[in-house]
Amino acid sequence: MKSLKKIIKEELSRLLCSDCGEHGEAYFVKDNIWYDNVPPYKQKKVLCLSCLEKRLGRKLKKSDFKSDKHGTFTYKQPWWDKID
Fold first, then answer.
1. Number of domains in the chain
2. Which domain holds residue 58?
3. φ and ψ at 30, to 5 degrees?
4. Burial zone of 47 (CB within 10 Å; 0-12 exposed, 13-18 middle, 19+ buried)
5. What is the pLDDT of residues 57-66, one digit of tens each?
6. Cβ contacts of residue 27 below 8 Å, gap of 6+?
7. pTM for the full model?
8. Do residues 22 and 69 touch, judged by C-beta distance below 8 A?
């Protein structure tokens, strides 16, 4: 049986940006943004917002993000107000 410390370490490692290695933010962009800019071998991984913007060649816009059914998840993230 795995120790709690090992499980936490494994889970946190899944949140690391696959480009820069920093901790990624939780977000959901529209499918076309993700699939058009992230190669298939990285599509099940995490990219921080900065690295996704580098791939896009522009700043993310609020319209790039999926809206969730309840309208709460994305809009409550600490980075949301920094998006134009």
1. 1
2. 4-82
3. -60, 150
4. buried
5. 999 998 998 8
6. 49, 65, 74, 77, 79
7. 0.75
8. no
